[in-house]
UniProtKB/TrEMBL annotation, chain A:
It comes from Paenibacillus typhae. PROSITE patterns: ABC_TRANSPORTER_1, ABC_TRANSPORTER_2. Residues 6-233 form the ABC transporter domain. InterPro entries: AAA+_ATPase (IPR003593), ABC_transporter-like_ATP-bd (IPR003439), ABC_transporter-like_CS (IPR017871), P-loop_NTPase (IPR027417). GO terms for molecular function: ATP binding; ATP hydrolysis activity. It comes from the Bacteria. The keyword Heme does not apply. Pfam families: ABC_tran. Keywords: ATP-binding, Nucleotide-binding, Transport. This is ABC-2 type transport system ATP-binding protein. Belongs to the ABC transporter superfamily.
UniProtKB/TrEMBL annotation, chain B:
The keyword Chloroplast does not apply. This is Permease. It comes from the Bacteria. The chain crosses the membrane at residues 62-82, 103-132, 144-167, 174-192, 212-233. Keywords: Membrane, Transmembrane, Transmembrane helix.
Length: 303, 238
């Protein structure tokens, strides 16, 4: 069992009578990339701000590295790097000075600045004022700043928001490298499922401030897996045969639709169909796209 | 921890026009009196012949309170804006540094910059006096030094208030408007009751017992830091 890095219990934040986050239970294990997924305004940023101690929860507990955040905020933050929403930077300073301003507070070694610039591939741009950087570069600088204190936990809020495809690709591969190369646990939020699917090991889906799904990506993909479709010469007869073998199923646009089953059973069924004189034109697995599954979860909870 | 935050702040204000402001205030005041005495040299010299330095200092001192109020307002606003501009608060306050240290570092930075201004004012006034040939009379070094700093102590309550206002809201219109209003009101301090802290910078220089107003300014200034610091330590950062 992996040790837990972030654990929240009954986390709640109320803004002017409206609950932005409601009874949120987060559980993030060490070395994981945890994808925090939800539509805009679902409470992702509010949760992340609470995890960083930027805003106070109305009620509930936050434990990071097994310590309560409220009591040990500075100790915990020493081991946490963060990037919250739009990049924060001092536009009039160059990249090195931006990092130096943070380094002075962290009291990290000076050599660390060159190291993090190298990790985010900004070496060579470090002497230019940051206001002239592209959004992607600013975002990478933000990640460099988050890495400056050699954190054990990295909290990234919408790190790819507003980036072009190549920028997204860069950030994504960067994030995927971190746990393997530096042993860092990553919490990354996004409103795009495809993003999270490509980066995370575990996903938590939040809707209107409530956690509606929390499991591994593999499990999510499994749940979203779709049905089997057969195009055969005599659909009715084929369906009868499938039903006799206990596969259930239905007919749709003269295709036999069968629920998901194991490879061995599919092979057996096809064999029988062929032996009974059916011509099998196509065997397709129609996956319900994860996106559809996600929308289903977000709109009405998981079935 | 506060010193680390201060050293970071020191770096961040580079190229933000703060140093320009620090120099502009005192050198502007000195230049103004240079013009005043340059144009009416003989008249003023006749007027103040018993004590030329006192004449010069008195003329400069008249503008010190408003310069301190305006300068303090703008310095507080510019310092706060360094963080407001690109919403850097969320990044800064998610670092392992206490909110109180961050607040105190900003306050200290603001106060240090104004100390620089006051020193420059004393130096500038001394230089101007010597250029005008007042060196023939004994130079009142203590008074020259007191010129900026006495009023500075009297202005502390307003400066602490301005820092609080500037740090509190992203939009600097309100804090700057308050600061300018107070600066303009301070011109009429001779008509106001001496119980009004607004009059203290002027009184700290010219009253019979200036120490009363210097001490009051220091004490109330310290007191004004408290609500600002507490509010800053507790507020939600967006």
């Amino acid at each position: 069992m992996k040790s837990t890095v972030i654990k929240t219990t009954g986390l709640r934040k109320v803004y002017r009578g409206r609950a932005a986050v409601e009874h949120l239970e987060l559980n993030i294990g060490r070395g994981e990339i945890y994808g925090f997924l939800g539509p805009n305004g679902a409470g992702k940023t509010t949760t992340i701000r609470m995890l960083l101690g930027l805003i106070k929860p109305t009620s509930g507990r936050i434990e990071i590295f097994g310590q309560e955040l409220r009591k040990h905020r500075l100790q915990i933050l020493r081991k946490v790097g963060s990037l919250v929403e739009s990049p924060s930077y001092y536009g009039h300073l160059n990249a090195v000075d931006n990092l130096e301003a943070i380094r002075r507070i962290l009291d990290a070694p000076k050599s660390r600045i060159a190291e993090v610039l190298d990790i985010v591939s900004l070496t060579g741009e470090e002497k230019r004022p940051v206001k002239g950087f592209s959004l992607g570069m600013k975002q990478r600088l933000g990640i460099a700043a988050a890495l400056l204190g050699s954190p054990e936990l990295l909290i990234l809020d919408e790190p790819t928001n507003g980036l072009d495809p190549s920028g997204i690709q860069e950030i994504r591969s960067l994030i995927k490298r971190l746990p393997a190369e530096h042993g860092i646990t990553v919490l990354v939020s996004s409103h795009l499922l495809s993003e999270i699917e490509q980066m995370a090991d575990t996903v938590g889906i939040i809707r209107q401030g409530k956690m509606v799904y929390q499991d591994t990506i593999a499990h999510l993909q499994e749940q979203a897996a779709g049905d089997l479709r057969l195009a055969v010469s005599e659909p009715e007869a084929a369906l009868e045969l499938a039903k006799r073998r206990g596969c259930g199923g239905s007919l749709q646009e003269s295709r036999v639709i069968l629920p998901r089953m194991s490879d061995a059973r599919v092979a057996l069924l096809i064999k029988e169909l062929v032996e009974n004189g059916h011509a099998v034109y196509r065997v397709e697995e129609r996956r319900q796209s994860l996106e559809q599954f996600f929308l289903q979860v977000v709109e009405g909870g998981v079935s | 921890m506060m010193w680390r935050a201060l050293s970071a702040d020191w770096l961040k204000i580079r190229g933000k026009g703060l140093w320009f402001l620090v120099f502009l205030g005192p050198l502007g005041l000195t230049a103004m009196q240079g013009l005043n005495f340059g144009i009416r040299y003989d008249y003023l010299k006749g007027q103040y012949q018993s004590d030329l330095w006192e004449g010069l200092l008195g003329n400069v001192a008249g503008f010190v309170p408003i310069a301190l109020y305006l300068g303090g307002t703008l310095i507080c606003s510019l310092i706060a804006n360094v963080e407001h501009q690109m919403s850097s608060w969320k990044q800064l306050l998610a670092l392992p540094v206490s909110r109180t240290s961050v607040f105190m570092a900003k306050l200290l930075l603001c106060l240090l910059l104004l100390v620089c201004s006051c020193l420059l004012l004393s130096a500038g006034t001394l230089g101007l006096g010597l250029i005008l040939g007042f060196g023939s009379q004994p130079v009142p070094y203590a008074d020259i030094l007191r010129l900026g700093f006495a009023s500075y102590a009297g202005a502390l309550p307003v400066i602490a208030l301005q820092l609080w206002l500037s740090l509190s809201s992203r939009n600097q219109t309100f804090p700057v408007a308050v600061g300018i209003t107070l600066s303009l009101l301070s011109i009429f301090s001779m008509y106001l009751s001496e119980w009004m802290p607004l009059t203290w910078p002027a009184l700290a220089w010219e009253a019979e017992s200036p120490w009363l107003f210097i001490t009051s300014g220091l004490l109330l200034g310290l007191l004004m830091i408290l609500p600002g610091a507490i509010h800053f330590a507790r507020k939600d950062v967006d």
